[in-house]
Specification:
It is a single chain. With 379 residues, this protein is of the alpha+beta class. It has helices at 11-22, 37-41, 53-61, 89-95, 98-107, 124-131, 155-160, 218-234, 273-276, 281-290, 311-316, 362-377; strands at 4-7, 27-31, 45-47, 65-68, 115-118, 135-139, 149-152, 169-173, 176-187, 192-194, 198-203, 206-212, 239-249, 255-263, 303-310, 335-340, 351-359. Strands 9, 10, 11, 12, 13, 14, 15, 16 and 17 form a 9-stranded antiparallel sheet that branches. Strand 13 and strand 14 (255-263) form a beta hairpin.
């Protein structure tokens, strides 16, 4: 059986490794952070990152196939081992560069919001004036959970915009936003399956709640699944792809589904699949990496809500990290899982864990998720 490598030892890598364990495969993780979930819980962890040539060579010498837990994993150092990557190096190169990603989507005929690319060194403020307000300026490279993004509504906002950003800028129109949804596609060399559509609610640019089933018209859900599968095919994907969508009205006054971003990996919005679906996102990717055929995931009965647990919950309990006081859980039998990542240091807006609620309706699941988290913070 192949030995599987994971570039990155965060919580996504940890849950993927657990799925691979169940299939009986050896797993090697490359991670530089001694505080990471994998470093805390896994034995076969090589200390180092993609910028460490020695650690990288050691890692690839020990694995037969490898994946990554972040699209911000630098692509150039991985080129000598491209044949071992799933998804491919090409997919990583496209999805970690917003300019390449937007251009790819446009050239392949997939709808995005109106955008304009601003090359490194070009006058971004002049470009904003041409493009028009309101708009959002995003750095081409790096950035997640709202980092590297600037919402420009007024001339004061434009004046405060940094003159440069890693890789330049992408300017995007601002939608009258109704909702945000995501779709996971699992694809191997033989077949492709799509997960049900997740409805995602954010707070301060960080995913807060994921609801399943999504409270979105069935026709839009069908369209999202078709588009996500089409993107995966256009990328010739082998692995897992998360496609994030906006539903809203653009400058032209039309209400549509728009592709927002791509993530060629397991995704926060997919945590809910560990309880809500017959096959989780982690199990699906593990199957592909292990050479086991993928199967169509189905949703268990009822409604589901994943709630994010950020460092603020630990700080509210007077804790610096590690374990959490879960005494309140006894009053919430509908909370079917709490998963604490084991990070030693709790910081504001740091992802420290998540939980899943099962209820009769999406609204009830969300209501109970919000209340449960409030009770944890009150400890």
């Amino acid at each position: 059986m192949p030995t599987v490598g994971i570039l990155g030892g965060g919580q996504l890598g940890l849950m993927l490794a657990e799925s691979l364990d169940r299939l009986g495969h050896d797993v090697v993780v490359l991670e530089a952070d001694a505080d990471s979930p994998c470093a805390q819980r896994r034995s076969n962890v090589i200390s180092g990152g993609p910028g460490d040539p020695t650690a990288l060579a050691t890692f690839f010498s020990r694995v037969d196939i490898a994946t990554f837990d972040s699209e911000n994993t630098p692509a150039p150092p991985l080129a000598p081992w491209a044949a071992k990557l799933a998804p491919s190096l090409r997919v990583l190169e496209i999805t970690q560069d917003r300019a390449k990603e937007k251009t790819f989507l446009r050239d392949q005929g997939f709808r995005t919001v109106k955008f304009e690319l601003v090359a490194p060194g070009a006058d971004v403020k002049a470009a904003v004036h041409r493009f028009g307000l309101p708009c959002i300026a995003k750095s081409v490279l790096g950035g997640y959970d709202g980092k590297g993004q600037h919402r420009l509504l007024t001339e004061t906002d434009v004046s405060a915009l940094p003159a440069s950003a890693p890789g330049g800028w992408v300017l995007e129109e601002v939608l009258q936003l109704e909702s945000e949804v995501s779709c996971l596609v699992a694809r191997d060399a033989r077949s492709s399956v799509t997960f049900p559509i997740f409805e995602n609610l954010h707070a301060h640019h960080i995913l807060d709640l994921t609801v399943l089933p999504a409270r979105v018209a069935p026709a839009l859900q069908d369209e999202a699944r078709q588009v996500a599968d089409g993107i995966a095919r256009a990328l010739d994907l082998v692995g897992l792809l998360t496609v994030e969508f906006f539903i809203g009205t653009g400058r032209d006054g039309a209400r549509r589904l728009y592709v927002n971003e791509l993530a060629p990996r397991v995704h926060n919005s997919g945590h809910v699949t560990r309880q809500a679906c017959t096959v989780s996102q982690f199990d699906a990717l593990a199957r592909i990496l292990a050479g086991v055929p993928v199967v169509q995931p189905e949703v268990h009965r009822g409604a589901w809500c994943m709630g994010q647990l950020l460092g603020e919950v630990w700080l509210a309990q007077g804790r610096t990290g590690g374990a959490l006081d879960l005494t309140a859980w006894k009053d919430f039998p509908d909370v079917v899982d709490v998963y604490v990542y084991g990070k030693r240091e709790a910081r504001a807006q740091r992802k420290m864990g998540h939980f899943v609620v099962h209820a009769d309706t999406p609204e009830r699941a969300m209501e109970r998720a919000v209340l449960f988290r409030q009770r944890l913070r009150a400890r």
